[in-house]
Amino acid sequence: MSHEGIRFVPKDEEAREKEESRPLPRIAVTPEKVRVFLSEGKGVEIDWIDGHHSAWTFAWLRDACPCATCVEERALEGRKPGQPKPKPTAALPMYTPPPKPKSAHAVGRYALQFNWLDGHSGGIYSWEYLRRVCQCRECTFAAEEATGTPN
Ligand SMILES: [Zn+2]
Ligand SMILES: [Zn+2]
């Protein structure tokens, strides 16, 4: 009798791989309340059912657009989600209004989509994505710890 053909994945390794792309628990990615402060131009706030609270400005969200084009552009420029493009230094001082959506709507039951004033609208901001980029002190601190960013 032979055990050939059966490969056992060492338990540790399997666990470590899972840790990397671990999906967030359902309660962490289910919003209890979503507030989009469209007329105030303020941003978005979400209360999650696990009791966590997240808030983003529209400017941040525009620079964190999760569409393929923006993700690629950020990767090329080495920007993190929400990190604005560097301003051209030689340009004349020009007033650019802060990014704001004309409208926002829910996509199914899993995401938000914005129609930005600059005409862009390709980004689908899933609850999972938004929770992963939560900007509260607790989450940004945890993210810094994980990536080892000195502070
Ligand atoms: Zn985009
Ligand atoms: Zn948070």
Tell me what you see in this structure:
- The longest helix has 11 residues, at 137-147.
- With 151 residues, the chain is an alpha+beta fold.
- It contains five helices and six strands.
- It binds zinc ion (2 copies).
- Residues 52, 54, 134, 136, 138-139 line the site of one zinc ion.
Keywords:
binds zinc ion, 151 residues, alpha+beta, 5 helices, three-stranded antiparallel sheet, 28% helix
Helix-strand makeup class? alpha+beta
- Please state roughly what percent of the residues sit in beta strands, choosing from under 5%, 5-15%, 15-25%, 25-35%, 35-45% or over 45%: 15-25%
Structure summary, number of beta strands = 6
Largest sheet: 3 strands, antiparallel
State the distance separating the first and last CA atoms.
58 Å
List the helices and strands and how they pair.
Elements: H1 11-20, E1 31-36, E2 43-48, E3 53-57, H2 58-62, H3 68-77, E4 101-107, E5 111-116, E6 124-126, H4 127-132, H5 137-147
Antiparallel strand pairs: 1-2, 2-3, 4-5, 5-6
Bound molecules: zinc ion (2 copies).
Compact description:
By secondary structure, the protein is α+β, with helices and mostly antiparallel strands. It contains five helices and six strands.
